[in-house]
Design a protein that fits this description.
- Strand 4 (58-59), helix 4 (70-76) and strand 5 form a beta-alpha-beta unit.
- It is built from 17 helices and 13 strands.
- Helix 9 runs parallel beside helix 17 (285-302).
- The protein has helices at 2-11, 13-16, 43-52, 70-76, 91-96, 106-109, 113-119, 132-145, 149-174, 197-204, 219-222, 228-234, 250-254, 258-261, 264-267, 276-282, 285-302; strands at residues 19-24, 27-32, 38-40, 58-59, 81-82, 101-105, 122-125, 178-184, 189-192, 208-209, 223-226, 239-243, 271-275.
- 48% of the residues lie in helices and 18% in strands.
Amino acid sequence: MRCFILAIVLGLAAAAAQAREVVHALGTAQVPDAPQRIVVLEFSFLDALAAAGLVPVGVADDNKPERIQPVLRELIGDNWTSVGTRKTPSLEVIAALQPDLIIADTDRHGAIRSTLEQIAPVIFYDSLTGGYQDVLTQAARIGEAVGRGEETAAFQASHAARMNAIREQIAAAADGRPAQFGVASSRGLWLHSPQSYAGTFLAALGFEAAGPVTEGGTYGALYQPVTLEQLSESDPAVLILGKPAKGDTIDQAWASEALWQQLEAVQKGHVFEVSSDLWSRSRGMLTAEQSAADLLAIAKSLQ
């Protein structure tokens, strides 16, 4: 593996001479002026590239390409290679793609930084535990890093206009109304805190993100598993459940329980289902607009 990576590094030596310094979350990197072979290890980074008009050569898609939302696939097509899971991407596959830039997550990939940097320049951003505003900031920085700063700025201006238009449409229904987002699976329910991406997204659209403000920004603090008893104690007025496309989820098992039936959101018919891939995993600008469309439909049901 080391020999293979070394061969890739030597092959990219000439390109490195034309690199420029880019500041990122973990330091600096020498990035080519206009990288053409980019590998992304989070869906939000893929979203940022798509908004900038670029297509990566490699994507960490969890070996489940269906997790890449249609709005992104329409822009990037299918001419890219899976490099495995976001948590543990394949270093061999990444190296074989001969990338000239890798975009990685501080939390997931910081521990393999030195190995990734043997393959190509790497820039790190906090996707996993970042909020909605962090996504916007990171997208702008990624746009600058890949030489598409103007294109990204133009997209962000139009994105802001579209999001503001939806915020205005749902203002009456939102009006600071507490809303809780959580991901339900067959294994349990994980509530996303107000500081999480979903929590900050709800706040950006005019809702009050329900749930206790947690200390620290770690994954465990932002995404907390809860029992039905714990859910009944918080008793959110609006409950938005992110669910997989297939399979049973824990709320179905809870449906006959008295505690579930006594929840305010259940009694008022304010439990809504959305895609967990979209609302929880995607965390980008293009996908945020799709989530905002979901929220518009939810708001109409609340009025």
